[in-house]
Design a protein that fits this description.
By secondary structure, this protein is of the alpha+beta class. Among the domains are: about 100 residues, Elongation Factor Tu (Ef-tu), domain 3 (Beta Barrel); about 80 residues. The chain has 5 helices and 12 strands. Strands 1-8-11-10-9-12 form a 6-stranded antiparallel barrel. About 20% of the residues are buried. This is RND family efflux transporter, MFP subunit. It holds the Pfam family Beta-barrel_RND_2. Keywords: Signal. Belongs to the membrane fusion protein (MFP) (TC 8.A.1) family. GO terms for molecular function: efflux transmembrane transporter activity.
């Protein structure tokens, strides 16, 4: 009675009533956990293809292999692209034209200085001086043109390396190889996939509940998941999705719980049982009778 009065004075909520009852030494009302069938799934499955077409030279991974983000999965034949990188690398590293033009420019500068002194003494014509000045300007412009060519060669090398890199297929995630579809020697189109990767950390626990339980579910709630493998494994999982669209045919709604799997020891694709800390209700008790 004392607990009931204290709760009414503070606030009529489950949380405050629990706190007050504990402080006053009263027993908490038991909330029955309800058990539901569920399925453990990877949080995502990605089909890995190629951004370019070509013939597979090697597929490094097989089904069931663990992979790390950035790990090489497969390579396409790339003899032409490798040769292109070598040619452009040689061009980008060639400094001989620029060095030769610098020498010519230095000579043109000396001629210009000499022509200027001769003109001051009247030992040469204005036309000869102008020719020396023009030769110097042309030499400077040619040096700038060679520098631009050098920059373009470096950029072309970068493009060639990027083209070559596109023929190496890397994993965008850490996970396991769920399936392998193509083998070395097969032609890869942009629509085809080579391997499928499953991301197993975290795992998603999918469960469908009757709509009568909808008002008892909220994001952040913790449920207990009982797995078949490893045997006798009971782990907490957090509710991360509560569907707001019901399935009218089955009168159910979907709930997703997130189950951490940092060491990737829990297999996906298995059935499970999840216990949610909610009150059990009779089917149809929360709806209307339209008949």
């Amino acid at each position: 009675m004392l607990c009931h009065l204290a709760v009414n004075r503070i606030k009529r909520t489950r949380i405050f009533s629990s706190v007050v009852c504990v402080l006053l030494g009263a027993a908490l009302p038991a909330v029955a956990g309800v058990k539901f069938d569920c399925v453990v799934q990877p949080n995502r499955i990605i089909a890995i293809g190629s951004p370019v077409t070509g013939i597979l030279s090697e597929v490094i991974v097989a089904r069931g292999d663990p992979v790390a983000k950035g790990q090489v999965l497969a390579r396409l034949e790339a003899e032409l692209e490798t040769a292109t990188v070598a040619v452009n690398s040689r061009r980008a590293g060639d400094e001989t034209s620029i060095e030769a033009q610098r020498v010519r420019l230095k000579l043109a500068q000396h001629r210009m200085t000499r022509a200027e002194k001769l003109l001051e003494r009247g030992a040469t014509t204005r036309e000869a001086f102008d020719e020396a000045a023009a030769e110097l300007e042309v030499g400077r412009a040619e040096l700038e043109r060679l520098k631009v060519q050098k920059d373009l060669a470096v950029m072309e090398l970068g493009r060639a390396k990027a083209t070559l890199a596109r023929r190496t297929i890397k994993s965008p995630i850490s996970g396991v190889v769920a399936a392998r579809r193509l083998s070395p020697g097969e032609f890869v189109t942009q629509e085809a996939w080579i391997v499928q990767l499953a991301d197993l950390d975290p795992l998603y626990v999918e469960v469908f509940l009757p709509t009568e339980y909808f008002d008892q579910l909220a994001l952040g709630q913790i449920g207990e998941v009982a797995l078949r493998q490893p045997p006798d494994t009971h782990l907490p999982a957090e509710v991360v999705v509560v569907d707001s669209v019901f399935d009218a045919t089955s009168n159910t709604f979907g709930v997703r719980l997130e189950l951490p799997n940092p060491d990737v020891v829990l297999p996906a694709g298995q059935r499970c049982k999840v216990t949610l800390n909610i009150n059990e209700v009779e089917p149809g008790s929360g709806g209307f009778n339209f008949e």
